[in-house]
Design a protein that fits this description.
This protein has 289 residues and is an all-alpha fold. The protein is built from 14 helices and two strands; from the N terminus they run βααβαααααααααααα.
């Protein structure tokens, strides 16, 4: 990951300015008249056209470049190098250049093999990202998501703490940390995170969903119902909001729309066994009374 530089409006790192004269020299090397100008133009334009679709002229995502998108474009540059070597008349000099290219191939092959250990999975990749960018919130955020999916709630919480430390207005981080705290039965901590997230952005449905869970765990049934109603208003396609609201309605004795909520939850998430279980339990209780 190559993140955009954090300069706070100040000057960029020197490498960004140094790229301009390098670019001008490269343009001169391409357009100047030589014996094989057509081949140079072909290779250069092959590179430019194939790499152009991934240039961050309009920034997308968190990184300003990704080297993996140059694999195909480099064919154009290597075409130029290959043609230059083929034009060398002296056999000894040509052999030296061929040996240099073979050596580079060996070096790059080793670097590729060595890099596999870093990018063997998401954990190792973002361990490396954090090591190289220890004050950028994004690496901690991604690793926290991976740890959460892997069941490591303590590790996920630590990473979300770091992400929010470096980006205090990180709404999604607060929402996700609230979810982790819910899973760790820290309803009070979850409510603090989710109230803060909602105060920053009141359009996040999962902030209300997680706050509903926290309120329910803290015994604030009415507040939890209001949160689930808000989730459904913001995004009517979140199955868990209906299932959770159905449970609270049944518990509070409000039977209005309970079955409708369970049925909607099952329709949206037909593989969720918990929704079937909740609906079945409610049906049994209803028959008794």
């Amino acid at each position: 990951m190559h993140y955009f530089p954090k300069n706070g409006g100040a000057s960029l790192p020197w490498q960004y300015y140094a790229s301009l004269p390098v670019l001008l020299v490269m343009i001169w090397l391409v357009v100047r008249k030589t014996r094989f100008r057509k081949e140079i133009l072909f290779g250069a334009f092959f590179f430019l056209i194939t790499v152009s679709v991934m240039l961050q002229i309009v920034p997308v995502g968190k990184a300003h470049l990704a080297e993996r998108y140059t694999y195909v474009p480099y064919i154009g540059l290597l075409f130029i190098v290959g043609h230059m070597i083929s034009e060398i008349k002296k056999k000894r000099l040509k052999n030296i250049f061929i040996a240099i290219m073979l050596l580079l191939a060996v070096v790059f092959s080793y670097q590729t093999w060595d890099r596999i250990s870093v990018w063997k999975d998401g954990y190792s990749l973002f361990d490396d990202v954090i090591k190289k960018n220890p004050e950028n919130y994004h690496g901690y955020y991604v690793r926290a998501s991976l740890r959460s999916k892997g069941g490591d709630m303590k590790g996920a919480l630590e990473d979300y703490d770091k992400a929010i430390e470096y980006k205090p207005d990180f709404v999604v981080g607060l929402v996700n940390r609230g979810d982790i705290r819910n899973k760790m039965n820290d309803n009070r901590g979850a409510l603090e995170d989710l109230n803060r997230a909602i105060s920053m952005d009141s359009t996040q449905p999962f902030a209300y969903l997680n706050r509903g869970i926290a309120n329910s765990g803290a015994g604030n049934i009415h507040a939890a119902l209001l949160d689930y109603n808000k989730v459904i208003k913001l995004n009517p396609n979140i199955a868990r909001a209906y299932g959770n609201r159905g449970i609270l309605k049944a518990q509070s004795g409000d039977t209005t729309g309970v079955m409708e909520d369970f049925n909607k939850a099952i329709k949206m998430a037909p593989d969720d066994a918990e929704s079937y279980s909740n609906r079945g339990s409610y049906k049994k209780r209803s028959k008794r009374f």
